[in-house]
Amino acid sequence: PETARPSALGTVTLPEKPVQLDALKHLCETWRNRVDFRDGYVQASRDLEEAAGIAQMKLNKDDVEAAKTFPCIESVLIRSAQTFLLEGRMEEAVCLAESRKKSFWSREQPELLLRWSALELAGRFMMKATKIRGGIKSLELSVAEMVRAYALFSEPWMMADRLHRHWESRLLNLDPDETEEDDFEKLMAKVRREYADLADELNRAFVERFQKAGFEIDGILPQTRIFCDRVAPALAKKKKTVFFLVDALRYEMASELLEGMDKDFKVALEPAISSLPSIPPSGMASLLPGAEKGMELASAKSGLTVVLEGRVLKDRKSRLAHMEEKVSGGFMALKLTDVLRLGAKRKKKMKEADLIVVTSQEIDRLGEEGDDHAETRRWMDDMLEQLRRSIRILAKQGVEHFIITADHGYLFADQLDSGMLMDSPGGTALELHPRVW
C-alpha cells in the first residue's frame, strides 16, 4: 500500500490506474507460474532484491502478507509467525503458515516449505496441548474415559504426541537462518517445555484415576487377551494370518500407519491396555497364547524374567518357541527386514503357514541403547513406511488377515531434567529402564 511504502521506494514510479497495476501483477504471476519462464523470474527477483536493498527495508507483516514478489518477504513473515507462537497467538501463526506453505517461494525453496511446516506443527501442537489441559480440568473423566479420550475421541488426545513427533522430525532437516536463530531457539525450547508439562499433567491425572479404580480399566481390551480374542478367531476361520509384534510401536504411530490403507484394506484401530512393567519381556509375553490365564514375574541373574504356563520366557527365541508349540497348523517366524526381501525359499514356506509372526525390535533398541536421538526419530518415521510395504508384500503372498500390535508405548524426550526423575522405590533393583524401575 502506498501509505506503508518504505521511503527507499519513494523514487519508484508506479502507474496510477488500477487496470495498469492489475496488468503488472498479472504479468508477474504469469512469469512465476509458467514452467518455461520460472527460472528467469527467480533470477530477476533475486537480482532486483539485492540491487534495491529490499531485504534491508523495514517491511511490516500486514503490508506484505499477500505479496509473493521477493524471497525476503518470507523471512519477514516467518519472523512474525515465530513471534506469534512465542506470544501464544497460535491460531494466527497456524493460519499464516498454512497460507505461506502454498506460496511461490515455498515451492521454489524446499527449506522454506520445511520452515513453514515446522511452524504450523508447533502452533497446532500448542493449540492441542491447551485444549487437552482444559479437558483434564473441566471434565471429570474416569481412567477408562481418559483412555477413550486419548485413543477414540473424534479429536483424540494422542494427536499431541503425533504433532510433537512430526515437529521434532522437521527439526532434523531444518537449518535455522542465522538472522532468526534466537527466536527459533526460544520456540524450540517452548515447544519441548510444553510437551514435558503436558505429559506430566496427563500422567499425574491418569495415575490418580488409575489408583482410584483399583488399577483396573473396564471396557478396554487387556493386552493379555489380544491373541485369544483377535488372533485365534482368525486362525479358527482358516484365514492366513500375520501377527506383527512391533517393539515400541506407539498408538499414535499405529493410527498414522492406517491412514490411506483403507483404500485397499478393511482397517480398524483399537486401544489395548499394556501389561506392567512396560518392558519387552513382559509386554511381548502378554501377546502369547495362554497369557490371558495369567503370568508370573520372576527374579533371575539377568534381571526380570516372565514365566508363562511353567515356561521361562527370556528372549525372542523362547517366546516364538512357545507360540509355535501352542498354535495348531503351519507356523512361520520372520523379522521385519526378512519380509522386505522375501526369497523363493521363504515364499514357498509361507504358502504352508497358517500363522506368520513378524517381529521388529529396532525402535526400542535404538531408544534404549542408542545415544543418537536423531537416528531414533528418523527410524520411527521410516518404520511406518516399512510396515506399509511389508503388509502389501504379504498381501500379495495370500495373507488375508493382519494384526499389528506392540509390547508397550513410551514418551520420547531428548533429555531428562530433574523433574522427570523418579526416586528409588526401595527393595532389590532387578531392572532399571527409562520407563521402569
Describe the structure using short key phrases.
single chain; 437 residues; alpha/beta; three-stranded antiparallel sheet; 18 helices; 54% helix; 9% strand; elongated
Explain what this protein looks like in three dimensions.
- The protein is an alpha/beta fold.
- 54% of the residues lie in helices and 9% in strands.
- The protein is built from 18 helices and nine strands.
- The protein has helices at residues 18-33, 35-52, 61-64, 72-86, 90-100, 104-108, 110-138, 143-151, 158-172, 181-212, 226-236, 251-258, 280-285, 316-326, 336-339, 344-352, 362-369, 373-396; strands spanning 221-222, 241-246, 272-273, 296-300, 303-308, 311-313, 331-335, 355-360, 401-405.
- A four-stranded parallel beta sheet has the order 7-8-2-9, sandwiched between helices.
- Helix 4 (72-86) packs antiparallel against helix 5 (90-100), helix 4 packs parallel to helix 7 and helix 12 packs across helix 18 (373-396).
- The longest helix is centred in the middle third of the chain and has 32 residues, at 181-212.
- The mean pLDDT is 91.
